[in-house]
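User: Sequence recovery, please. Input:
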């Protein structure tokens, strides 16, 4: 009898263990199922947000065209938005909202003619200009800037001859960056980030885009010439192109932020002499090439796609052959 009771106890424990194991397995399956459902929902929301962003981008392009048709004056920085009955669509970096079929789209329009022009060996002049302007700045490494100029030259030239403080194929191989350098003209501005020392002087923005450098348009598309726009100016540009000191450059950047957020005109924030200097150093009118940054295409707190695209003015009749050519297109 005693042995039988012991066997019954062992059987009971075994059954309880099996029940617990089965419960744990069911719980795990339910958890995995719920997680998969949430992941699928998030993925679907993100994909839907991407389609909304693309649709909103197309609408914003036509709204810019309509705004240009209604208002021929494309100067920036002196627009009092409250004085207009309808909404304006200017490339001054002001954050805006668009109701796109019931979904709130947050976006920003800037002029694509922004950043330093490093195309066609212009980097030599640009870096020399930066060195001359900051020669008395104790925080500026003039030698590093000179080496960077040489490295860009070696990156784009067609030979394997080392230039000063530059780098050629053997140096890139030592850094596991083969098959660099390109030894030809730059194709994309972001490839400059491969060059050691570049991001220290020209850091990418919060999205990883190299907005400090002017876009390199694909072949046969609009080139971006002339002074960079005032409304994407960096502190380095203000110091070099306008000759401002650190404090004055910070004052200008604060005024730009205030203009974009509160609508306070720059002429009401900066003195006339400083404004005159800035007007000579930067462009204060649109260049006919726009960058639209879709900041959020969906409800706050939910998965949402981002989109950045750069394109020329869309004609009133629509793009030729129904195709709009982009100079830049990022979806992330």
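Assistant: Recovered sequence (332 residues):
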């Amino acid at each position: 009898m005693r042995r039988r009771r012991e066997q019954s106890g062992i059987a009971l424990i075994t059954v309880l263990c099996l029940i617990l194991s089965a419960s744990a397995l069911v719980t795990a399956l339910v958890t995995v199922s719920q997680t998969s459902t949430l992941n699928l929902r998030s993925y679907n929301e993100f994909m839907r947000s991407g389609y909304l962003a693309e649709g909103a981008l197309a609408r914003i392009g036509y709204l810019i065209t309509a705004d240009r048709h209604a208002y021929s004056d494309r100067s920036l920085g002196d627009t009092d938005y409250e004085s207009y009955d309808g909404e304006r669509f200017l490339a001054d970096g002001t954050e805006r909202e668009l109701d796109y079929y019931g979904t709130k789209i947050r976006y920003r329009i800037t002029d694509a003619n922004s950043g330093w022009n490093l195309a066609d060996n212009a980097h030599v002049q640009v870096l020399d200009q930066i060195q001359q302007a900051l020669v008395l700045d104790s925080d500026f490494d003039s030698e590093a800037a000179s080496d960077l100029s040489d490295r860009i030259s070696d990156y784009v030239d067609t030979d394997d001859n080392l230039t000063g403080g530059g780098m050629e194929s053997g140096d890139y191989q030592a850094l596991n960056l083969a098959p660099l350098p390109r030894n030809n003209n730059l194709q994309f501005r972001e490839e400059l980030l491969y060059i050691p020392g570049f991001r220290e002087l020209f850091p990418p923005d919060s999205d990883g885009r190299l907005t400090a450098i002017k876009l390199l348009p694909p072949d046969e598309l609009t080139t971006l010439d002339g002074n960079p726009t005032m409304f994407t100016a960096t502190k380095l540009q203000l110091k070099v192109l306008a000759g401002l000191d650190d404090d004055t450059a910070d004052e200008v950047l604060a005024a730009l932020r205030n203009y974009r957020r509160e609508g306070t005109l720059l002429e009401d924030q900066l003195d006339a002499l400083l404004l005159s200097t800035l007007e000579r150093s930067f462009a204060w009118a649109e260049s006919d090439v726009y960058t639209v940054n879709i900041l959020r295409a969906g409800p706050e707190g939910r998965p949402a796609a981002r989109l950045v695209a750069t394109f020329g003015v869309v004609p009133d009749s629509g793009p030729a052959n129904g195709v709009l050519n982009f100079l830049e297109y990022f979806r992330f």
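The chain has two domains: 1-115+214-233+282-332, 118-206.
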